[in-house]
């Protein structure tokens, strides 16, 4: 009877105690979150309840399974299994706690600062810090698990002796990966590009959607995703439209006839911009920037608060100016001259002009 009750008491007591501690911790965090709603840390720490319970239950079983006389013939295997589970659960708990602390710090920073550029920079750094912490904890946990096996402990001396050679081989083999890793850290703390920035890469316009230690994802205007190694942004030039502020100046070029009414177009442009909600009112203008034998190039200029609004301003100006010219000044649109050339007065042509006689089809 004792052989049955003892394991039941040990296992049942561990489970009950674990559930009670988990419920108590969740209750305390819930009360703290209700008292301080402006502090997001308590609510984020509630995500750690499951790994906390797993750590506690595994630790209790690991410390009492020998006294409980559970699977005495396989005590070594049971103990090692519980140790491996304990190491993994501790790593899981550490990652959850660090993520809660980092996210809480970012939330408080974002609520206290209104500068979108600084908030995006901190968000990028926070994301990469979380990934670095998770990677470090995972590597340490994997190493601790391996050291629980006697064969790995015996091989430790030989591994350390060959560490120099292995380091050289690993460095050569993982040169690209390590380059991307250091490039990711450089992007995070060098403030080159941030999550939410509007960039132009290889002629593609988009918004930075995700940054990891090895790759970066750009979401284009048509909702495609362009993924590229982060080392690209440290070795090649790219356009960052959000750098130093999101305000932008947009330009619309129109090719018109030489008779286009420039003054009336300038007034119409101002009227269009006043009715366009995307225009921020900072600047506008219209000027003739070039001329050819057949057309003139007219540049319309306007400003907006960000890349999305400048796109709206440009398409609105282009559409309404062309429609206005078509309706009120059709002669100002580009034309292809198909009329006969007018002969100059007598004595002003350097060569005699042979009049063109159309053929009638008769001999």
UniProtKB/TrEMBL annotation:
Keywords: Membrane, Transmembrane, Transmembrane helix. One of its GO terms (biological process) is transmembrane transport. It comes from the Bacteria. Residues 177-243 form the Mechanosensitive ion channel MscS domain. The chain crosses the membrane at residues 6-29, 82-102, 128-149, 155-174. Residues 354-363 have a biased composition (Low complexity). The keyword Membrane applies. GO terms for cellular component: membrane. This is Mechanosensitive ion channel MscS domain-containing protein.
